[in-house]
Design a protein that fits this description.
alpha/beta; eight-stranded mixed beta sheet; 16 helices; binds cytidine-5'-triphosphate
Length: 446
C-alpha cells in the first residue's frame, strides 16, 4: 500500500485545492491530508485566513479524497508525520518546488502542477473590497506601518496626512503614496485611518475620522481620558465603524500563547504580575520634553498594563503611582501598583532609567517569566518549585509585528469579531482611565 501525505491551509476551498487532492490521491492508495491551524499559519506569516479550522477540515473531508485528516500545528511536524504514518510520498503544489527537497531523505517528494489563476489569496481579495488606509502622522512608527501593511492582503496604504505639508510630501515620496494637505480630501480618499500622531492629538483625529465614516486604528495610548474612550467607542459602534487601539503585543501570537498558558491553571491561581519596559531616550526627544503628555508612563505604560489588566481585569481596588521626575517635571521612571482582592500588579516604565525589562507572572503553583523584549513575545519559561522543572515555549514574531494588529483590524472591518477579545473596548477604557489618573497626579505635583 502506497501512503501519500499532503498539507495546506485550504482556506475558501477552491478548484485548485480540489484538483491537488484528487491528484494526490491518485499517487497512491491511502491519502493523509494535513490542515494547518490558525496559529501555525500566523507564525509562518499567513495572515487573514477566513475559514475556521473546522470549516477547512470539513471542506477537505467533503471531497472524499482524504482517508485521514490531521492537523498541522508546528514547524518540523512534516518530518515527524512522515515517520509516524510511514509515508511513501509527500506531495504539494508546484508553488513549493524545491522547498521540501530536504524530505527526500525520508520519502519520495512530488510537486504537482498548481492549478492556474486561482488561489485563496485571490478569493480573499476579490470577495472583500480592498480597504484603502490613510496614515495621519509621519513619525517613526508611521514608517514601520507601511511595509507591515503590505504583508496583509486586502489593505492598501493610500496616502498620508500631516498638517506640516513638507513632512507629508517627504513621507509620501519615500513610500510612493499620496500626500494630502487638506484633511477633507484625505478622508475622501480612504476607508480607514491609522493614527500615529502625538498622544494628545489622538482624540480629535479619531473623532474627525469617525465623523467622516472611517474605521480607525489608533496607536497607543489611544486617549488619555476615560470619558474620551467612553465617548468614542459607542460613537464608532453607532456608525458601524471599528475603533481599534493598536497595542501590538496584544495581537502577536507569542503573547496569546503566554496568556493562554498563564490562565490555564499550569501555574495555579495568579497572584502577582510584574511588567517592566524601559528605553533610554534622547533628552531632546518629544517623549522627554513634551511636558503635558510626555514621560515614561504615557509612552510605555500601555504595554505594561496590558498583561495586568488582561489577567486580573479592571476591578482593581487601588492604584498607586510612584515616579522619579526629571528637572522639567516629566517622569523618567514610573512604578504603578495595582491592588486587587487576590492579586497585585506592578508596572515599571523608564525613559531615563534602565532596568531589566521583564514580564513575570506568579501563581500558587509556579511562575512564568519572559525577558525583554517580552512585548514582542518570542520566548518564555514556566518554572515550578523544583528549579529543574522548567518548560520552555517559543513563538515567532515577524518583522515589526504590526502585521498582526493590522490583520485583526482588517478582519474586524470585514465583519469578523473573532479578534475582539485580544484587546477589548473595556480594557482600552481602563488604560485611558489609568493614564488620566496618572497625569492628574503627576503633572499637578510638578
Ligand atoms: N494549490 C494548487 N493550485 C492552486 C492553489 C493551491 O495546486 N491554484 C495547492 C497548493 O500548492 C498546496 C495546496 O493546494 O499544495 C494547499 O494550498 P493553500 O496554500 O491552502 O492554497 P492557496 O490557494 O495557495 O492559498 P494562499 O493563496 O493563501 O497561499
Amino acid at each position: 500500500m502506497t501512503r501519500v501525505i499532503t498539507y495546506g491551509t485550504f482556506d475558501l476551498f477552491h478548484e485548485g485545492h480540489y484538483r491537488i487532492l484528487e491528484r494526490a490521491k491518485q499517487l497512491g492508495d491511502y491519502l493523509i491530508v494535513g490542515v494547518t491551524t490558525e496559529g501555525y499559519d500566523q507564525t509562518r506569516g499567513k495572515l487573514n485566513v477566513v475559514d475556521s479550522l473546522m470549516t477547512r477540515i470539513e471542506n477537505v473531508r467533503k471531497t472524499g479524497f482524504a482517508d485521514d485528516i490531521i492537523i498541522e500545528e508546528s514547524q518540523g511536524q512534516k518530518f515527524r508525520d512522515i515517520k509516524k504514518y510511514q509515508i511513501d510520498i509527500f506531495t504539494v503544489g508546484s508553488d513549493w518546488v524545491g522547498h521540501f527537497d530536504y524530505l527526500k531523505d525520508y520519502c519520495e517528494v512530488v510537486y504537482l502542477d498548481r492549478t492556474k489563476n486561482i488561489s485563496s489569496t485571490m478569493l480573499r481579495t476579490q470577495s472583500k473590497q480592498i480597504q484603502r488606509i490613510g496614515i495621519i502622522g509621519t513619525g517613526r512608527i508611521a514608517n514601520r506601518f507601511i511595509p507591515e501593511a503590505k504583508l496583509v492582503s486586502g489593505i492598501n496604504t493610500q496616502g498620508v496626512y500631516n498638517p506640516h505639508m513638507e513632512s507629508a510630501v517627504r513621507f509620501a515620496e519615500k513610500w510612493k503614496i499620496d500626500a494630502y494637505k487638506n484633511i477633507e480630501d484625505f478622508f475622501d480618499a480612504v476607508d480607514a485611518v491609522y493614527i500615529a500622531t502625538p498622544h494628545e492629538t489622538h482624540y480629535e483625529y479619531i473623532k474627525a475620522a469617525l465623523e467622516h465614516g472611517k474605521h480607525v486604528l489608533c496607536e497607543k495610548p489611544m486617549v488619555l481620558q476615560r470619558a474620551q474612550a467612553e465617548e468614542l467607542f459607542p460613537y464608532a459602534k453607532e456608525r458601524n465603524l471599528i475603533l481599534f487601539e493598536g497595542i501590538k503585543t496584544a495581537y502577536c501570537p507569542g503573547f496569546a500563547q503566554l496568556l493562554g498558558i498563564a490562565c490555564s491553571g499550569m501555574i495555579g491561581n495568579i497572584r502577582n504580575v510584574e511588567a517592566c519596559f524601559t528605553k533610554l531616550e534622547n533628552k531632546a526627544s518629544r517623549e522627554l520634553t513634551d511636558f503635558k503628555h510626555g514621560g515614561s508612563f504615557t509612552e510605555l505604560g500601555s504595554y505594561c498594563m496590558l498583561p495586568i489588566i488582561k489577567i486580573f481585569g479592571d476591578k482593581f481596588t487601588e492604584v498607586r503611582f510612584d515616579t522619579i521626575n526629571g528637572d522639567n517635571g516629566l517622569d523618567l521612571f514610573t512604578k504603578v501598583s495595582f491592588k486587587y482582592p487576590n492579586g497585585i500588579g506592578t508596572v515599571t516604565c523608564g525613559l531615563g532609567v534602565k532596568s531589566e525589562g521583564r514580564l513575570l507572572i506568579a501563581g500558587t503553583k509556579g511562575y512564568i517569566v519572559a525577558e525583554a523584549p517580552w512585548w514582542k513575545t518570542t520566548y518564555f519559561e514556566v518554572h515550578h518549585e523544583n528549579p529543574d522543572d522548567i518548560e520552555k515555549y517559543s513563538e515567532r514574531f515577524l518583522g515589526d509585528g504590526l502585521r498582526y494588529e493590522i490583520s485583526d483590524f482588517l478582519s474586524m472591518i470585514n465583519g469578523s469579531s473573532r479578534s475582539e477579545f485580544k484587546l477589548t473596548r473595556s480594557e482600552s477604557v481602563v488604560f485611558a482611565d489609568v493614564m488620566e489618573r496618572f497625569l492628574a497626579e503627576n503633572r499637578s505635583q510638578a
